[in-house]
Amino acid sequence: MNESAMRLHDAALVERLYRSLYRIRRVEEDIARRYPGNDIKSPVHLSIGQEAIAVGVCEALAPDDVVFGTYRGHAMYLAKGGDLDRMIAELFGRVDGCARGKGGSMHLVDVARGVMGTSAVVATTIPNAVGYAYAMKLRREPRIVVSFFGDGATEEGVFYESINFAALKRVPVLFVCENNGWAIHTHQRQRQATLDICGRVRAFGMDAQRIEDGDVFDIHGTVAAAAARMRAGDSGPLFIECMTSRWREHVGPGEDFELGFRSREDEARWIEDDAVAKLAALIPERQRAAVDAAVHAEIENAFTRAAASPFPDADELHRHVFHER
């Protein structure tokens, strides 16, 4: 979508999308900057470069819709409205964290905001999402579930079991594949005999669409239309493959271009087509500066509060291990 076309979008939507994109980018840049210190107690998998997917999807959802994600879940958590203070406290291993300091970056949850959880194990939240959506269908609730995962998850058996069940039962679940082309250091071409993930999904009787350019407006529009059909009971599940690029290393704050498995030139077109910069150009400078300043203050306060939060007591190890009445 070119710039003149983007300017046709509602100004309020453009500002919301920009604020969410910029907020996620700045949070993760601050995490990367602070990571070499001793405050952050868990590994971090950054979404820098991939933010448009989470933002485009989550801005099209209703507050009571729910999402399930992966260990690269900061963007999804924040885009869906997850509490920033509790997220940073969780990275710091503090008791005020969203998992009370026990989960770290890879296990974020905010049930009140519809963030049902992320997992460190590839593909494990996909069947959770399908089961949740099936329960909503049985209860006749006009809500939908979104399952976020990477291209590597489509190689797991549970992925195919889940899409088969979702298609069979026509459950209101949206599968969002964030395809950055890499499973750690191995490209999709070296892992999959055919790169046509959508074709494989269609073989199970499910509609599948691929968004090539990572355009946040295209993603938002596709999800908004799909969500409306699901709420009306006019469709079954939908699979969307969103092509994207992660700019940082698989895990950690740095880059990985010097490792030799990919080059900066490989990702150049994605970096040049940065969604944050594109939307920033659509907002009047004074308005954008106000958004930026508010974001900066919120992030600084979140890190300050996290540092002031205490570490969990030893007896916290025995809490939330099983259901307590």
3D structure, described in words:
The chain is of the alpha/beta class and 325 residues long. It has a single domain (3-309), classed as 3-Layer(aba) Sandwich (Rossmann fold), CATH 3.40.50.970. Helix content is 41%, strand content 12%. The protein has twelve helices and eight strands. It has helices at residues 3-6, 11-34, 51-58, 74-79, 84-91, 125-138, 157-169, 197-202, 216-231, 268-272, 275-280, 285-308, and strands at 66-70, 115-119, 145-150, 173-179, 182-183, 186-187, 207-211, 238-243. Strands 2-1-3-4-8-7 form a six-stranded parallel β-sheet, with helices on both faces. The N and C termini lie far apart (52 Å).
CATH homologous superfamily title: Thiamin diphosphate (ThDP)-binding fold, Pyr/PP domains
Q: First CA to last CA: what distance? A: 52 Å
Shape: globular
Report the count of strand segments. 8
**Biggest β-sheet: strands ordered side by side in the sheet:** 2-1-3-4-8-7
The total domain count is 1
Beta-strand residue percentage: 5-15%
Keywords:
single chain; 325 residues; Rossmann fold; six-stranded parallel beta sheet; two-stranded antiparallel sheet
Helix and strand arrangement:
Blueprint: H1 3-6, H2 11-34, H3 51-58, E1 66-70, H4 74-79, H5 84-91, E2 115-119, H6 125-138, E3 145-150, H7 157-169, E4 173-179, E5 182-183, E6 186-187, H8 197-202, E7 207-211, H9 216-231, E8 238-243, H10 268-272, H11 275-280, H12 285-308
Parallel strand pairs: 1-2, 1-3, 3-4, 4-8, 7-8
Antiparallel strand pairs: 5-6
Helix pairs in contact: 2-3, 2-12, 3-9, 5-12, 6-7
